[in-house]
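ARCHIVE CARD
CATEGORY: sequence design from structure
SOURCE FIELD: tokenized fold
FIELD CONTENT:
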């Protein structure tokens, strides 16, 4: 009926319309029409985020959400393997022997296959384009597809009202047989078992043709509206059609002159929607059952009003089709409103990769035409002979000199390498007893204590100018005066140097004589504890030490009265004396200052010589 893979899905929809109109009689279960329209699905928390729902990849591809409906999942990267009809499993379940007189081995999909053709009726007999779908003709924003992982292709999710009973699901034959048996029990709750068997077996025959047509969902609804029975079918499929929306709409309108084709803009993107009537003959297998008394001609065919939407997917090769059909024309607006809600619920996901278009066979090379003879022309006026070209003097090529990149200057060391004490070093622990073994020689590090380093003297000035280089001439060394031997100076670290002059770095020149170390005489213990030495004036500057809870990022406190000289500033710490750079904490306390003796009175100046007396 149509081009590409649309015809297979349309035949599945027409077959469901025929089966529903023929088999679902008075003994079937019909649900109230409010079950189709009573729910406000747009207010559900997951209505705008269908991709946030977890649908198992190994399940039937459906997820029923309370208050929302049945979420259907489909994807272009999924391979639709051939599905076999679970006929044997259903016969074993119900214990039947035949269906409408056909034994198990004779039942096949050809028994229910129906051809589909458009109804060649007048335009006034065609169903009207529903207002619920026409509202999508207005401009509206289009949702951006969800970002998927590379290789996922295009994923589609949409919401179907729960009153539609799914007839095609993913899974093996046993899973499909169990699902169809559950649907038969819902549709024939008060009927006998043979009716459930006939319905489940005949609808199970659609498994293989539906998979071949790319059908991802097929369902049927049975409603009670205004005291009459009403039925509808719904089919969702994926097909390959590398056409833009404008080309697709024009082709549908050209091939189906009896249909009304619109181009609308649903939230998922531009979509072509058509409305038409279709006629399908009832299979001979079902004619004895579906033929009503007194109307044999009417029962031979089923006329359905159909709504069908075509949505090109962003990969540029696939098209999503959604079609709804009903044989009850009086309920056209009821089902059209549900069809509009289904279109509004479509959400797409895409990995950003456009599918490769089918290769077009290369065209045959066109045969070359024979060369035409040249047309004789009048001789042109004689032109003066052109002047010989003047050779330009060669321009010497400029030598290419590679740019010279200066080598980076070696970075001068910024200090002297020292050993950092280990993590468990305790500077306040008492000194460890000297080991019985021989003391390490030279600068060998003590076990676990680091390596000895040179400590600068108290008067060491790191900012002083470098000392002049020493004179290396032997004559100058001989002429230099020898330093006078000085007594050994006590070292606060307990070491005694044997040099003539204390060297803070512990070096000894070979040209200097060494004097034996002098051991100072033992000092008697003091009779009374020494008095605390007063700080020498000018030996420190008072600064404020912040308290433990001081917050440097807190806003400044309001100005208070000027505190006394030694009073601590509120919340800022206590003033202490900071020692100057040349302060030696290990030097002997300075002697108290001796009061200066009064100066003797000056002698009177002798009288000057006065010649006048």
């Amino acid at each position: 009926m149509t081009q590409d893979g649309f015809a297979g899905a349309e035949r599945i929809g027409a077959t469901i319309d025929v089966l529903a109109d023929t088999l679902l009689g008075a003994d079937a279960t019909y649900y109230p029409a409010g079950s189709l329209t009573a729910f406000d699905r747009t207010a559900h928390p997951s209505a705008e985020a269908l991709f946030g729902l977890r649908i198992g990849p190994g399940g039937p591809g459906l997820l029923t959400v309370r208050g929302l409906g049945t979420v259907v999942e489909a994807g272009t990267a999924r391979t639709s393997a051939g599905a076999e009809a679970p006929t044997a499993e259903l016969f074993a379940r119900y214990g039947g022997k035949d269906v409408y007189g056909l034994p198990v081995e004779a039942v096949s999909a050809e028994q229910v296959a129906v051809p589909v053709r458009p109804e060649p009726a007048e335009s006034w007999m065609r169903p009207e384009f529903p207002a619920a779908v026409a509202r999508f003709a207005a401009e509206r924003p289009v949702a951006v597809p969800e970002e998927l992982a590379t290789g996922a292709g295009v994923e589609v999710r949409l919401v179907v009202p729960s009153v539609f009973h799914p007839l095609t699901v993913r899974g093996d034959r046993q899973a499909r047989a169990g699902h169809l048996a559950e649907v038969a029990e819902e549709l024939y709750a008060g009927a006998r078992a043979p009716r459930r068997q006939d319905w489940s077996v005949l609808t199970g025959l659609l498994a293989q043709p539906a998979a071949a047509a790319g059908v991802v969902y097929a369902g049927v609804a049975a409603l009670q509206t205004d005291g009459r029975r009403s039925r509808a079918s719904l089919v969702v499929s994926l097909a390959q059609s590398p056409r833009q929306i404008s080309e697709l709409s024009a082709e549908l309108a050209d091939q189906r002159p009896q249909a009304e084709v619109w181009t609308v803009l649903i939230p998922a993107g531009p979509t072509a929607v058509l409305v038409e009537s279709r006629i399908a003959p009832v299979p001979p297998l079902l004619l004895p059952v579906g033929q009503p008394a007194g109307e044999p001609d009417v029962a031979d065919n089923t006329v359905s009003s159909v709504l069908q939407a075509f949505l090109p997917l962003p990969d540029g090769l696939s098209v999503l089709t959604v079609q709804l059909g009903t044989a009850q024309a009086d309920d056209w607006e009821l089902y059209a409103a549900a069809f509009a809600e289904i279109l509004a619920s479509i959400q797409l996901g895409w990995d950003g990769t456009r599918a490769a278009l089918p290769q077009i066979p290369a065209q045959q090379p066109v045969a070359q035409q024979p060369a035409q003879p040249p047309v004789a022309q009048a001789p042109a006026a004689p032109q003066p002979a052109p002047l010989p070209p003047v050779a330009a003097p060669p321009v010497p090529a400029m030598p290419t000199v590679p740019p010279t990149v200066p080598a980076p200057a070696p970075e001068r060391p910024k200090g002297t390498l020292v050993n950092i004490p280990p993590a468990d070093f305790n500077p306040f622990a008492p000194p460890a007893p000297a080991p019985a073994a021989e003391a390490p020689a030279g600068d060998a590090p003590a076990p676990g204590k680091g390596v000895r380093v040179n400590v600068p003297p108290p008067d060491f000035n790191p900012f002083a100018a470098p000392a002049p280089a020493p004179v290396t001439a032997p004559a100058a060394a001989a002429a230099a005066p020898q330093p006078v031997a000085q007594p050994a100076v006590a070292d606060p670290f307990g070491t005694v140097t044997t040099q003539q002059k204390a060297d803070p770095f512990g070096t000894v020149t070979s040209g200097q004589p060494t004097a034996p170390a002098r051991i100072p005489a033992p000092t008697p213990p003091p009779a009374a504890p020494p008095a605390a030495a007063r700080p020498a004036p000018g030996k420190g500057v008072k600064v404020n030490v912040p308290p433990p809870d001081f917050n440097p990022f807190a806003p400044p406190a309001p100005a208070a009265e000027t505190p006394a000289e030694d009073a601590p500033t509120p919340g800022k710490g206590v003033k202490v004396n900071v020692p100057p750079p040349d302060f030696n904490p290990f030097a002997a306390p300075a002697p108290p200052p001796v009061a200066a003796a009064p100066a003797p009175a000056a002698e009177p100046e002798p009288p000057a010589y006065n010649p006048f007396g």
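CARD ANNOTATION: The longest strand covers residues 228-240. The mean pLDDT is 74.
SHELF: design records, drawer C
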